[in-house]
Specification:
CATH class of the largest domain: Alpha Beta
Order of helices and strands: HHEEEHEHHHEHEEHEEHEEHEHEH
CATH architecture of the largest domain: 3-Layer(aba) Sandwich
CATH superfamily of the largest domain: Zn peptidases
Oligomer: single chain
Distance between the termini: 23 Å
Shape: elongated
Bound molecules: zinc ion
Number of helices: 12
Number of domains: 2
Number of strands: 13
Length: 406
């Protein structure tokens, strides 16, 4: 086999400081543009240089390592991110970066190709310290002006530009300084579907559409002991009915997702009927039309319930991102290679955001998922079986090799 798994796991252990640590003691806090991030970046650059890759750093600190890259050629790009959330696991992001490096090393050492190919490490995918998340790929694909991005600050009033300077990763290359031929990202699923369905590989059809709503219901406060039940304007009663309406849609796990994630009640006292309740809705669907349809039905339901209970209300849209579709041709190659390697697979939509969804705006893009045990992610208990990691890496190698033939 072309892939050197020992080298891959050694590097993963190295950037995550896992040496001699038991699984229970894993505690990774590689927040974007901190010293820990810098140390990991420096290590990977040394590995890239040992492979004679040409290193480019752009003006948001994204790192690129190229093999046989010349001006006006379009390389196939592989990659992900190495920043993490607090108390993170080992594989979120790192798998796609160290995995890309391993695939490239194997391709070079096996003399597979002379065509240009590159690795990308995108800055601040997690968005823990600086918002928004997916910042590096967002900037690289020119979704926002760089000078506007530079003004973004963390909680300590440090700008992203100063943070980049401090760790010496404010690079010279401009946004979109080259155009990839295609982009491929290997990542853990971060959800339970592959684990439940007992599949080795997830072939990602795209990222689902997302809408965030804030709903406020206005009622009237009054005494809990004296106000007749039939004569109340109680927003909590309406909230309860909205909640049960929403939860009646939760049966189909793969399609409509709705979450009430935050709730505020006023005055929030045991013996007072509430006068105001505020809650948020996170609505996701892989199909943009279905999401809008659901949102319209929900608005209608809220209106009806409020009218029936003499409640005033307000619905604000906080966020709305349309769905992203990944490249069908790349996915066909991934399916064919999975079949050939006898890996079980499933086509699915990503519930979480990824750098790949930004890259999909500029070139054919897709992702390969490996299972997350029990669907746990963004936690130190996040785990993927070694055998599944190996399959994901081997598949990435074989798919890249095939795509290089085109
Ligand atoms: Zn990630």
């Amino acid at each position: 086999m072309a892939i050197n798994f020992k080298r891959f796991f050694k590097r993963l252990e190295d950037i995550n400081n896992l040496k001699n640590k038991s699984f229970e003691k894993i505690n990774i806090n590689r927040i974007a543009l901190t010293l820990d991030d810098k140390i990991a970046r420096d290590k990977i650059i040394i590995w890239m240089k040992n492979l004679n890759l040409s290193i480019k750093i752009d003006n948001i600190g994204n790192i690129f390592g190229f093999y046989n890259f010349k001006k006006n050629t379009k390389p196939i790009l592989l990659g992900s991110h190495i920043d993490t959330v607090r108390n993170a696991g080992r594989f979120d992001g790192s798998l796609g970066v160290i995995g890309a490096l391993e695939v490239l090393e194997a391709l070079i050492k096996k003399n597979v190709t002379n065509k240009p190919i590159g690795i990308a490490i995108f800055t601040n995918e997690e968005g823990v310290r600086f918002t928004p998340d997916m910042m590096g790929s967002w900037s690289f694909t020119k979704r926002e002006n760089i000078n506007k991005i530079y003004k973004i600050k963390d909680n300590n009033n440090i700008t992203i530009k100063d943070a980049l300077k401090k760790i010496k990763y404010l690079g010279k290359e401009k946004q979109l300084f080259f155009k990839p031929r295609m982009f491929l990202e290997l990542h853990i699923e971060q959800g339970p579907i592959l684990d439940i369905e007992k599949k080795n590989i997830g072939i990602v059809k795209g990222v689902q559409a997302i809408t965030w709503l804030k709903v406020v219901l206005f009622g009237k406060s009054n005494h809990a002991g004296t106000t007749p039940m039939s004569n109340r304007r109680d927003p909590i009663k309406v909230f309860g009915e909205v909640s049960s309406y929403i939860n009646s849609f939760k049966s189909d796990r793969k399609q409509q997702m709705i979450t009430i994630g935050s709730l505020n009640i006023e005055p929030n006292q045991v013996n007072v009927i509430a006068n105001k309740i505020e809650f948020t809705l996170d609505i996701r669907n892989p199909n943009d039309k279905k999401l809008v349809q659901f949102e319209n039905n929900l608005n209608k339901k809220i209106k009806e319930l409020c009218f029936a209970n003499n409640i005033k209300y307000k619905v604000d849209k906080l966020v709305n991102f349309p769905s992203v579709k990944f490249d069908k041709k790349i996915n066909k190659v991934i399916i064919n290679k999975s079949k050939k390697l006898k890996y079980t697979y499933l086509e699915l939509f990503s519930g979480a955001g990824h750098d790949a969804q930004m890259l999909a705006n500029i070139c054919p893009t897709s992702m390969i998922f490996v299972p997350s045990e029990k669907g746990i992610s963004h936690d130190s208990k996040e785990n993927t079986k070694k055998s599944d990691i190996k399959k994901g890496l081997n598949l990435l190698y074989n798919v890249t090799k095939e795509l290089l033939k085109e």
